[in-house]
Design brief:
By secondary structure, this protein is mainly α. It has nine helices and three strands; from the N terminus they run αβαααααβαβαα. Helix 5 packs parallel to helix 7.
Amino acid sequence: GFSMGGYGAVHLGFKYPDVFGVISNLAGAVIDVEFFATYQNGKILNHVFNGDREAFDRNHTIHLAAEHADQIRDRTMIRIIVGDKDIGRGTLKANQKLHAHLQELGIEHTFHVVPGVSHNYRALYNNMSTDQAFEYFADAFRRATPE
């Protein structure tokens, strides 16, 4: 998923690791509560979490990764890709933080920063290498296919 879709992919994949074995996060909005409390006057925080910052934090990808690390580790394929110019909403910094957190937890994943790209899905895909764009999913299918 891209942006909020990336957040959703990571959120669901980390919350339900027994259901999802592959996560693709393209510039996911894995941003902290302060952004969502102010973005569009708190519309997302209020609509999704009823304005409850603690509920947001409990469901944030950082918390869910730690809570389910043992179920995610060595089971879930995780890919994080973000542009190096994706700084307007803090997406680059947030994905770098997620990357560092997964490293600390010993959760294998791939992390790519695409040069010259801001928060733009088309530009992100157009500037990704072939292995970043398609080989990831080919590998996921190979792993899922019984021999």
